[in-house]
Amino acid sequence: MIWLILLPLVWASLAFILGAGRGKWLAIAGLAAQTGLAFDLAAKVGAGGTAISHTIGGWGAPLGIDLTADGLSAAMLLLTQCVALPLAVYASAYYKRDEAAGAYFWPLAGFLISGLNALFLSADLFNIYVTLELVGLAAVGLVAAGGGAQQVAAALRYLFATLVGSGLYLLGVALIYGAYGTVSIEVLTPLVTSETPRLMWIAGGLMLIGLMLKTALFPFHFWLPPAHGGAPAPVSALLSALVVKASFYLILRLWIGPFGPLIAAAEWLAWLPALLGTLAIFWGSWRAIRAERLKLLIAYSTVAQLGYLFLIFPLLTGHGAIQAGVMQAFAHGLAKAGMFVAAGVLIKATGQESVAGLAGAVERLPITLLAFGLAGMTLMGLPPSSGFLAKWQLIEAALDRGYWWLVVVVLAGGLLAAVYVFRVLRQAFLLAPPGQTVATVPRILEWTAFALAAASVLLGLRGVELMQLVGVVA
Amino acid sequence: MTTNELLPLAVLASSLLPGLVIFALPEGWTTLRTTLNLFGAIAKLVLVAVLLAGVSAGEEFGVRFAVLPGLDLAFKADALGLLFISLSAVLWLFTTFYAIGYLEGAPHRSRFFGFFSLCVTATMGIAMAANLFTFFVFYELLTLSAFPLVVHRGTDKAMKGGTIYLAYTLIGGTALLTGIVWLHHLLGHTEFAHTGIVAALGPEYAGQLKIIFLLLIAGLGVKAALVPLHGWLPQAMVAPAPVSALLHAVAVVKAGAFGIVRIVYEVYGVEFAQSLDLLAPLAVLAAITIVWGSFRALFQDNLKKRLAYSTISQVSYIVLGVALFGPVGTIGGLVHLVHQGIMKITLFFCAGNYAETLGIHKVSEMNGAGRRMPLTTLAFSIGALGMMGAPLTAGAISKAWLSDGAAAAGMDWAIWVLWTSSLLNAAYFLPILWRAWFRLAQAAWPEEHIPARGWRETAWLLLLPPLATAIMTMAAGMLAESPGSPLEWAKLIAEREYRQGATLP
User: Fold this and answer.
1) Model-level pTM?
2) Given an 8 Å threshold on Cβ–Cβ distance, is B185 in contact with A396?
3) Per-residue pLDDT of chain A (474 residues; tens, 9 = 90+)
4) In terms of CB atoms within 10 Å, which of A107, A114, B123, B235 comes out highest?
5) Among A382, A396, A407, whose Cβ lies nearest the Cβ of B184?
6) How many helices (H) and strands (E) does chain B have?
7) B137, B151, B181 member nearest A429 (Cβ)
8) CB contact under 8 A, B65 and A400
């Protein structure tokens, strides 16, 4: 378990010392090992049916650092490694030799992944803050490493958002520590009841707002499209697929954990994230439909897809909602990573960033286009794909509770996604303008995009194990 | 895994695997691609023959996989599914031959045949789905894999047709999904069963069940091109001829019609649907579609568009047969599923031949085509006469059973609908035949690609498939009472769908 956190730190440091040339092979090897570890952990949690804990150095709570993996964290760890490994393979071929951005990529990506893994495993609020900062700063660094003026501007905006977000979170943690004298989730959860002091409400509010800002939930999404749309393709993929999911995971973890009694005392609270999620779906889709640049379109699609994750909050009192959320996180994580890297190939090959510049791409880059199409299928929620299963579960959970408007939102969101996905595909099927030149791209770039997109579809044929794993909640 | 579990999967794989390999083949490897295509098509026919023999002997074929806890991807090959499977498998073989001839030397053939195989796989999945969830999975797969075929030519016009197609089918799919999840929510499953499953819910759910029925039929009605959801079909005729032939006369529209059959017989149960008063409105909708499609066909000068409106009209014969309560109407509808397929594919093959050989796209250009291409025109005439319901053709059998079914159900107005449609069919087909056979040709054809050489009026691969399906049209009409005919199979299905042991004439 501890190796999931240490390994990326090791290869990140080595990549920094040895340079990108050798560092990238170490990174891929390290990630391959991590993927094995994540599968192993998931298998253990799934088979044992309970959470697995690990106390570092034998020092337990409240003094030491506790690591805990239940079904939810095991699933998120699995997603992280399964997305990061193909992305590392992609990045190793994407960056040219001696490219400055490439040299920065490996160490920063290592810290980012280490931070993510630590976040999913941490069992106390303060450690989570540390990991949040690690993830946020590494992510900002990755965006800024592109080096262009636009990218630096986007990175600064992102830096502002992420610092304010984690600052609010830290303030909340401080208030909780003041009130209860502990930051361990396990110790804290039984202490919080519906008769908690006003202070706890303020702390909870601050933390949730901070995390929503980091998740780019509408209307806090302002920083996401420039940052994700402007970064190099492997970075956009990492950020869109994984980083925003981390803060979502945390919201969910707190919501069903320590803040549970608060929310039970005021049920209308659950509608707030659902309402914002609904607005995110419509606004993000609308902007994606209107976007001129391909990567901006995909970034706005992320804004929309994140909205689905927040629709589950009013449903958490019933069953199946967490499952739907995790399925959507997997669907979007795999598909969006695939879509961003496919877009990276298209842009690298055609040299054009606009959607209109894609005419004829289907003849030149069929595999990439197929990858884009498969990822699009998942985002639209068409069967057989994991996105479809996520929608099915969401709709069923909503029907169980009788919340019809959630059903309408989910279905309408799927149709809007179809509009922007087919806007791209349609353009690609048009005949190429004469005289257009297409640069050759390494085949491995095309195939990693395809692998990610295909995984997002194939998960739609077999979701049983994943759902059983998620069922193991501490 | 036993053989009975493997066979349905093998039927899927026989088109899926060649399709996937074909995607990866370089454009120039024509021989390997052709071999794979034909191998898949013939292997599928063999498998279907084994299934047919098994099912008529009372064996059961099925397999299921859990996708989510409580949600299964389930297949079964039953009598009703096999009716559709056999039709698609046979016509896939002919269309493959035809497409190889049609696309000779054209670009992007790997892509074309790859998606073509995916479409056939989706059709097989639709036919063998054992619950609504599985049905929906393959239904949407068909929607998606047909899109690249519709826009295959990459022109602006093709794009427009493709976009309209998607807009209709995706919105329809959403309605269908809503209905399916709702039903799944109420019942906890959506397995198809003879005589239906929803009757178990009890009378307090009647209102909800009516709304669900509306959603399901609206979703399926888009593909079955029920008026007013038919707008995409004439637009989608920009696709190449083999696509129009197989997908828009057989697979896509039939998937919708077949879905309606499953909903009425195996989800609601025909008797329960009748008790909810759902069948009469469906029959009226089908009747409107029949007359409106035929009426619009009168005014189309573009040959393929005229055929498209004719399809809209003819597919609703199936829906009408389903909606006529009583085994006779059921048999009429089911047998028309097959008959309409072989007749319409003949017509589309021929239309493709005229376009490829002589550059004829419009009815007004057809003068004298019969003398230049006698065999093609003969096949076209058989198909057209069949559509009108002329004696000795398959169409006559369908119409006879449908009329009897209408009389048996006490819906005499439906007989008038059928007669009106036959008259309109004659009014839009006979002028074509008259022009082709009896008018003299103009000085030059619009665009002659393939010169005539003796009996070889066009490429053999274009000529033989329509001749074969024309012969099948005649055979299905003349040998209707012999064992193994579509009619006998439809009788077998009808016996199993009615609870109180239907008495057949």
Assistant:
1) 0.93
2) yes
3) 888 999 999 999 999 898 888 888 999 999 999 999 999 999 999 888 888 888 877 766 666 678 889 999 999 999 999 999 999 999 999 988 777 778 889 999 999 999 999 999 998 899 999 999 999 999 999 999 877 888 889 999 999 999 999 999 999 999 999 888 888 888 888 888 767 778 888 999 999 999 999 999 988 999 999 999 888 899 999 999 999 999 999 999 999 888 888 888 888 888 999 999 999 999 999 999 999 999 999 999 999 999 999 999 999 888 889 999 999 999 999 999 999 999 999 998 888 888 888 887 877 888 899 999 999 999 999 988 999 999 999 999 999 888 999 999 999 999 999 999 999 988 888 877 777 777 888 889 999 999 999 999 999 998 888 998 988 875
4) B123
5) A396
6) 20, 2
7) B151
8) no
Q: Which helix (H) or strand (E) holds B217?
A: helix B206-223
B302: helix, strand or coil = strand
Chain A contacts in chain B segment 163-222 (CB below 8 A): 163, 166, 170-171, 173-174, 177-178, 181-182, 184-185
Task: Tell me the C-alpha distance between B286 and B313, whole Å.
Answer: 8
**Number of other CB atoms surrounding residue A257 within 10 Å:** 15
* Separation of alpha carbons A255 and A263, rounded Å: 8
Other CB atoms closer than 10 Å to residue B301's CB: what's the count? 11
A-chain residues near B131 (CB < 8 A):
none
User: Token pair for residue A359?
Assistant: 């005419």
| A384: preceding bond cis by omega (within 30 degrees) | yes
